[in-house]
Design brief:
nucleus; 51% helix; DNA binding; 805 residues; 31 helices; Zn(2)-C6 fungal-type domain-containing protein; mainly alpha
């Protein structure tokens, strides 16, 4: 891979025109334009369905831009009728057989273009930034980017009419067979605990790497395996095409290799059948006052800004009254459950950073057990939704994520999302009884769940439970939480809302514009939500079961369009948040904000371009040169994103990695996921490069050095007691051993680069380090059933009103 090409967004030598978030009305004209002057001839489809005013701006109207949903305009009746007739003609087999080849090609191009337009990919902008970026270690070489219009491959530029990228199914990419599974996940307790893992999870990528290693070993030994131009079926929604694709998949499995490995063999998550609840825990017990204060402070400082499911001023006030009330047992059980989950998450983080005030190694399990003991399940819990229940279940899900139990986290979040939807949190609240602050609190709860849903979807590879097309709740307002409880805060929220809807006075617009562009936690959260929305669209377009019915050519165009959309997201970031500028590992300079956004961006880039990181040329007969070039560019984007993510980590200068720095500045709640994502991509590139004898890398040894760096960090985290990192290290070592299966592969450089990490890991294997590992606790059956119970609001006395309004 050439290091001159990069997956990073562009900055022109550090000078970038910042495209900040702007009010959706023009300050110069909003006050003077009359209603008739602002009236438009035709609204977009989204605004029509919601029956709201549309600005008519193209390619994206103001409302759709604010809601981050696809914007499309209905065709004129004449054009729409013409396209319908052409598509009907295209689908008639008897007509298709008598058409000349070049006419068939034009009709196929029309079908792809119409589908593409329906999915609103044409609404993206048409320029790509030049690739000049800076990382923490060095400045990458400059390389001109290819214009979006040039990367958008069309059939008339493919040359030979026998080229098949427009006809072959999109499952020729690396995520092959996304519409089926060959594994029974209900066969035993272990497989149930791991569950289904989708193709866009790094765990599935690791399984594919093992298959590549096995194929490479057989090739070196002269054994013919799964290789060559094997059929993948045609791209169509018809029953015949679907049957042909299934037959092609059976043929590939029959003629190629068949592996009996299970996905759980490659999973590093800690999900297992054992319960996490402890026995003999007093549910109403409270630790001495100093420790609860430290745990709440730890949570608010290191979790809340990135997962604002609680309202900080409101919760802090309630906590103060709870501690000093003298009768804390009279507080509602559901609120005490929330408090214990805050304790559990804060306790887990305190052990990661080795805080001097931390409690016992298992105290987070004590708080978790206590929270679930406060949650008796009964008919009312199933029948009724409640805002605090949503918060509790969301916090339980986040806690499970932080300790590596992603399947538990996924299941709990699904319940939280259903409860939230039952309360209508996914829709724009217009009830007159709700104040602006109450509406804002509900919006923050919903978007917190949305962010966690996106993250779990990325980690597990499972489909999303939230369909953004059914959601209309606006983004969180860029208003500080402290203002939500005040009358002035309500007025500020109302002004900001009116400004977004185009009804604000022009002299106030500049002040409200400054709110949108302020560098504060809520705007940082909004940035991550906006990228999550784009990434969810990537999941749907490239990793859903419907992917197999589209042509690889269409998948290429979607990848190109989404690359443009992700880069456009970067260009809208404040300069303070642009992580491609030189990072300072010290305090200040928004290091934490930039590091977290960097991990999110490069993770999205890897997911987006991963389908091209394989030998597609072996799967498509007579693939056009331009199509091959585009696949290679996208594969390079995927690998360079992994390398750029590695560059976010300090090099260490020969010292052991500072894991506390990473926990304090990075996404500590899912950091192992991001590191394993990059590690797997780089190892895949290493395997493909070596096995296929292709000199794709301009700087030999760079990939193995990056692999070694990530492995060093994982081992350092494991040596400090991170159980998820330890499992990831063990899984990686097994993966590396796969390169020793045959003599024709030289992996000495790889093992040399990972040796330092192995030394770090071995030095940490002592009784003290092992004491920090995640305990596996078993209980009697009477208590195991409590783990799935949801919290029920109780009214034990009237000492505290600890409910969200």
């Amino acid at each position: 891979m050439s290091t001159g090409d990069t997956a990073q967004p562009s900055a022109s030598a550090g000078k970038v025109a910042i495209s900040a978030l702007r009010p959706h009305t023009d300050p110069a004209s909003s006050g003077n334009a009359s209603r008739k002057e602002r009236r438009i001839m035709k609204a977009c489809n989204e605004c029509k369905s919601k029956k709201i005013q549309c600005s008519g701006r193209k390619p994206t109207c103001d409302s759709c831009q604010q809601s981050q949903v696809p914007c499309s305009y209905a065709e004129e009746k004449l054009v729409r009728g013409k396209n319908v007739r052409l598509l009907q003609l295209l689908r008639e087999p008897n007509v298709r057989t008598i058409l000349l080849p070049h006419i068939q090609k034009e009709l196929k191009a029309l079908e792809i273009e119409v589908i593409d337009d329906d999915r609103s990919f044409s609404s993206t902008t048409t320029t790509t930034p030049t690739a000049t970026t800076l990382s923490s270690s060095r400045k990458r070489d400059e390389s001109p980017a290819i214009e979006y219009s040039e990367k958008r491959i069309r059939l008339d530029a493919m040359g030979d009419e026998n080229n098949q990228e427009a006809d072959v199914s999109a499952d020729v990419g690396s995520e092959e067979s996304v519409d089926l599974t060959a594994e029974d996940f209900n066969r035993n307790a272990e497989s149930k605990a791991t569950g289904f893992i989708g193709k866009h999870s790094e765990t599935a990528w690791a399984q594919r790497l093992a298959h590549i290693q096995a194929e490479g070993a057989e090739r070196a030994e002269g054994v013919e395996g799964h290789r060559g131009h094997i059929a993948h079926g045609e791209a169509s929604m018809s029953e015949e095409a679907g049957a042909n694709r299934i037959a092609a998949k059976k043929s590939r499995h029959a003629s190629g290799n068949s592996w009996d490995d299970a996905i759980l063999d490659y999973a590093y998550h800690l999900d297992d059948p054992n319960t996490l609840m402890l026995g003999h825990v007093e549910r109403d017990e409270l630790s001495p006052a100093e420790l609860p204060n430290m745990l709440v402070r730890c949570y608010m400082d290191n979790v809340h800004d990135f997962f604002p499911i609680l309202i900080k001023p409101e919760f802090s006030d309630q906590f103060g009254r709870f501690i000093y009330s003298g009768t804390p047992k009279k507080a509602p059980a559901i609120w005490r459950a929330i408090l214990n989950l805050v304790f559990a998450i804060g306790a887990g983080y305190s052990h990661l950073i080795g805080a001097p005030w931390r409690g016992d190694d298992r105290d987070h399990l004590v708080y978790h057990t206590r929270a679930l003991q406060l949650s008796p399940i009964d008919e009312t819990t199933v029948a009724l939704s409640d805002l605090q229940r949503v918060q509790v279940i969301g916090l339980v899900s986040f806690y499970y994520l932080t300790i590596g139990h992603v399947s538990r986290s996924w299941i709990m979040l699904g319940l939280a999302c259903r409860q939230a939807t039952a309360l209508g949190l996914h829709l724009r609240p217009m009830a007159p009884s709700l104040s602006a602050a109450s509406r804002e609190k509900r919006a923050r709860v919903w978007w917190s769940l949305y962010y966690l849903e996106f993250l779990l979807c990325e980690i597990t590879g499972r489909p999303t439970m939230i369909n953004h097309q059914f959601s209309s709740v606006p983004m969180p307002a860029p208003v500080d939480e402290e203002a939500l409880a005040s009358r002035s805060g309500n007025k500020l929220l109302e002004d900001w809302k009116n400004n977004q809807e185009g009804a604000e006075e022009p002299y106030r617009s500049r002040f409200l514009f400054d709110l949108d562009t302020a560098s504060n936690p809520i705007n940082h959260f909004r940035c991550r939500i906006q990228l999550a929305i784009v990434t969810q669209k990537i999941f749907t377009s490239l990793y859903s079961a419907a992917t197999v019915s589209k042509a690889w050519l269409q998948a290429q165009e979607e990848i190109t369009a989404f690359n443009q959309e992700v880069d456009q997201w970067y260009r809208t970031l404040l300069k303070k948040h642009q992580f491609t500028l030189k990072l300072d590992t010290g305090d200040g300079n928004f290091t934490q904000e930039r590091i977290i956004l960097g991990f999110c961006y490069y993770g999205a880039k890897m997911l987006l371009n991963r389908p091209c990181l394989c030998r597609i040329d072996e799967r498509i007969r007579n693939q056009a040169d331009q199509s091959k070039t585009l696949d290679n560019e996208n594969a390079r984007e995927c690998v360079m994103a992994a390398k750029s993510m590695t560059d976010l980590l300090p090099d260490g200068d020969g010292q052991s990695p500072d894991v506390v720095w990473l926990y304090k500045n990075g996404p500590w709640w899912c950091i192992v996921h991001y590191l394993m994502q990059a590690l797997t991509v780089l190892t895949l590139e290493f395997a493909l490069d070596k096995y296929n004898k292709a000199q794709l890398e301009a700087h030999p040894g760079e990939t193995t050095r990056k692999i070694g760096k990530i492995f060093h960090w994982l081992c350092a985290m494991a040596a400090k007691g991170n159980s998820v990192a330890l499992a990831a290290c063990e899984q990686s070592l097994v993966q590396f051993e796969g390169f020793k299966k045959h003599k024709g592969f030289d992996a000495s450089e790889l093992f040399q680069n990972i040796q330092r990490g192995k030394d770090i890991l071995e030095s940490g294997r002592n009784p003290q380090a092992q004491a920090h590992s995640q305990p596996r606790v078993s209980l009697d059956r009477s208590q195991q059933g409590l783990e799935t119970k949801i919290l029920q609001a109780q009214t034990e006395g009237e000492i505290l009103e600890l409910s969200i309004s």
